[in-house]
Structure to design on (187 residues):
């Protein structure tokens, strides 16, 4: 049996959850999430203990993998609507900066024009320090959307190995390379 899949997901009191066949709707203080799961997984809610149980049809390798995945996704949804997820990014480079205008994120990354990114619905972007080193925080209830949008932002100008300029995750270590070495003396 899957070690992760057999564990129940505890639902806090301030979270409303509804399950109909393979669709799970969760609503909490940070927002609403819904997800359609594989029809081979049965998802049950114990109203007395406020716990969600995930069960599988067979002992196939595929169903064992789906069992743990389904339970983990439901646990992520519950955590997202209660506490939320956030990802911090740093912008390093002379003249590089970021600002939020309405529902768009404007990044000046040394290109001839500013890069405009549409912020996904339900996601909040905070620019705490717009200039070098710039800091932004991407936050929201959906772990997948927060991670994906952070990766899109980082992909606009990944950090380069010589000076470390670009966009990186907070705490990310960039392996640096030595530049060209000047040698003296004629051969």
């Amino acid at each position: 049996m899957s070690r992760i899949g057999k564990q129940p997901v505890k639902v806090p009191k301030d979270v409303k959850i509804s399950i109909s066949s393979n669709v799970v709707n969760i609503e909490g203080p940070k927002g609403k999430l819904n997800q359609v799961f594989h029809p081979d997984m049965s998802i049950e809610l114990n109203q007395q203990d406020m716990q969600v149980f995930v069960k599988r049809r067979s002992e196939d390798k595929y169903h064992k993998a789906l069992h743990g995945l389904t339970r983990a996704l439901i646990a992520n949804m519950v955590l997202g609507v209660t506490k939320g997820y956030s990802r911090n990014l740093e912008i390093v480079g002379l003249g590089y900066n970021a600002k939020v205008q309405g529902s768009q994120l404007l990044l000046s990354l040394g290109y001839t024009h500013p890069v405009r990114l549409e912020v996904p619905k339900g996601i909040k972007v905070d620019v705490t320090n717009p200039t070098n080193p710039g800091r932004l925080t991407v936050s929201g209830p959906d772990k997948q959307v927060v991670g994906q949008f952070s990766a899109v932002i980082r992909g606009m100008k990944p950090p380069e190995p010589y000076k470390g300029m670009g966009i990186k995750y907070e705490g990310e270590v960039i392996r640096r390379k030595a530049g060209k070495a000047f040698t003296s003396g004629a051969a």
The longest strand covers residues 85-92. Residues 85-169 form a domain with the Outer Surface Protein A; domain 3 fold (CATH 3.90.930.12). The mean pLDDT is 90. Helices lie at 61-82, 143-155.
